[in-house]
Every structure is written in structure tokens, then in C-alpha cells.
Amino acid sequence: MPNFRRGKVVALIKSLQKSDLSVRELMTRTRMSKSAVYNWMEAFRAAGLAHRPQWRICGGRPEAVYAWGPGVDQSPPLPIGNTMRVRRYRQRKSNGAAMLTSILIQQRITG
Questions:
Q1: d(Cα 31, Cα 13) in Å, to the nearest integer?
Q2: How many CA atoms lie within 13 A of 89 on its CB side?
Q3: Closest CA to 40 of 26, 61, 58, 20
Q4: Is the pTM of this model over 0.85?
Q5: In this structure, are 30 and 56 located in the same domain?
Q6: Are 36 and 52 found together in one domain?
Q7: Do 20 and 47 belong to one domain?
Q8: What is the per-residue DSSP string for 49-86?
Q9: For the segment 41-85, what is each residue's pLDDT rounded down to a tens digit?
Q10: At 63, phi and psi to the nearest 5?
């Protein structure tokens, strides 16, 4: 286990016992660095004291959510391929163009 002050580790454990949290949320609550939180969480997982019940998408990337106690780890979501990214981009682009067209038509009618 990483060498860290006892008070912060106790705060980390108490925060996890209250609710399931991501590394980013644990960093904020305990004022520990990202690497320290991650190292402690991996040590707790290896000891069977914590698990990853779910993943969230944060900033376009998957982020693990940790929970206190034994449980089954969820695997991370599969990455989105380039084909799907292009489809989403084209859908957003066409929706934006359609919205702009409807606004312009509406302005011509009222204006």
C-alpha cells in the first residue's frame, strides 16, 4: 500500500462508505493527488475491500466509480470506433443545418 498520512486515508474510506465515488470526486473530498487516490483504490481492490461497480463517461473518456466492500468489478466500456464517431458528427452537423434553416425560414415569415 502507498505510504500516506493516516487522516487522509481514513477520510478516503469514510467517503467511500457513504457513497460510490470516482477518483476525481475522491480527490476533491480528501485533497489527495490523483495518483495517491488511484494507488489506494487499487490496493483496496487487491485486498478485496473495494470494487468498481460501474463506469461513467466523463469528458469523453470512461471513468471508474469505486464502492466500498466486496463485489464484482464491471469491465470498462468498449471504445467508440471511428465509424461511430463520424456518424455522430454528421448527425450533429445535419441537425444543426436543419435547425438553422428552420430559424431562417421563420425569420422570413415573421420579418
A1: 13
A2: 7
A3: 26
A4: no
A5: yes
A6: yes
A7: yes
A8: SEEEEEEEEETTEEEEEEEESS-PPPPPPPPPPHHHHH
A9: 999 999 999 999 999 888 778 899 999 999 999 998 887 788 888
A10: -130, 125
Task: Give pLDDT tens digits for 84-103.
Answer: 888 878 887 877 767 666 66
Q: Using CA atoms, how far apart are residues 110 and 95, in angstroms rounded to an integer? A: 23
Domain range enclosing 97: 80-111
**Does residue 64 contact residue 52 with C-beta atoms inside 8 Å?**
yes
- Residue 70 to residue 79: CA distance in whole angstroms: 27
The count of C-alpha atoms lying within 13 angstroms of the C-alpha of 27, restricted to the half-sphere facing its C-beta, is 10
Q: Are residues 53 and 84 in the same domain?
A: no
Amino acid letter, 76: P
Which has the closest alpha carbon to 84: 63, 60, 65?
60
Tell me which amino acid residue 40 is. W
Looking at residue 21, what DSSP letter applies? Answer: E
Query: What cell does 27 get?
Result: 480527490
Asked if 34 contacts 64 with a C-beta cutoff of 8 angstroms, the reply is no
Are 68 and 87 contained in the same domain? no
